[in-house]
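[Primary structure, fold]
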Amino acid sequence: MNDQEWSARSVESIFGAEGYTVLRAYTGTQALQRAAETMPDVFILDRQLPDVDGAEICRRLRADPRYGATTPIIITTAGQAGRSQRLEAYAAGAWDFIGQPIDGETLLLKVRTFLDAKRALDEVRADAFLDEATGLYTPRGLALRAREIASEAGRRHQSLTCIVFSPESPAFETAVASAESLVLEIGRFFRSSGRAADAVGRLGPLEFGVIAPATSPIGAAQIVERLETAIAGSAGSLAPDTGRLKLRAGYFGCQDFAEEALDPIIMIERAGAALRNGASVPASARE
C-alpha cells in the first residue's frame, strides 16, 4: 500500500466515523463523473492523479456552474507542499493545499470550517431574489413572485401553468463550457424575449421554472418550443457534437386558478416531479 492509498483510507476512516459520506474516485475522469452524479459538498483531490493533474480537475470544477467558487476544494500532494505547487493550486481555485502525510484531525477541522462558510454563503444566495449569472429569479424570488401572480390569476379567474425544464442532451452534464454558455443563453432569452407577465427563475444549476398566467399546458409547451428555436443558432457552439438543443419539460396547470386554491409552490413542485418522472404533462394537469 503506497502513501497515497494509506492517506486516502485514513481520511475515509476519520470522516466516516464523524458521520460524513465519503465517495472515492481513483482517476480525474471518475472524479468528474461522480461529481456530476452526486454534487459533493467538498472535494479533496490528489495532485498526482493517474490521468489528469489535480489542479486541472480543480479548474474544471470551478468552471462548472454547478459548483463555482463556493464549494471547498482541497488539493493534497505527496511529500512537502512546495511553493510553486501551492501557488498553482490556489490559482486553480483550491481553498487549501497540503502535503502528505495528512494530519486527519487538522483536515477534519478545516473541512468543518470550510463547510460552515459554504453554508453561510448558500444562505445569503438563497435570501437573494435574483440569480447573479442569469438575472432570473432565485428559487426564493420565484416563490414570492409566483404567489403575487397566483393571487392576480385567482382574482381574474385566469388559467395558470407552471413549467419546469432542463436540457435533454446528456452532453451538457459533462460539457462544462457548454453548460455555462447554455445557462447564460437561457437567461438572455427570457430577459429579452420573455413575456412580461411571466416569472422565470433558476431552480438549480441546469433547471429552470416559469410561472405563466393565462396559459394552458399547451401554451406552456409553446414557450419551451420558442426557447429551443431562439437558441438553435447557438446550439453548434454550445454542443457541437450533439446537434440541436432539446429541452425536457414538466408542466402543471389549472384552467381557473380561483377554483383550485393551490399554493403556487406546490405547482412548481408538481411540475418538477413531472419533469423528473419523464411525464411531459402529468395526468393531474388541466387545460
Residues 104-127 form the longest helix (24 residues).
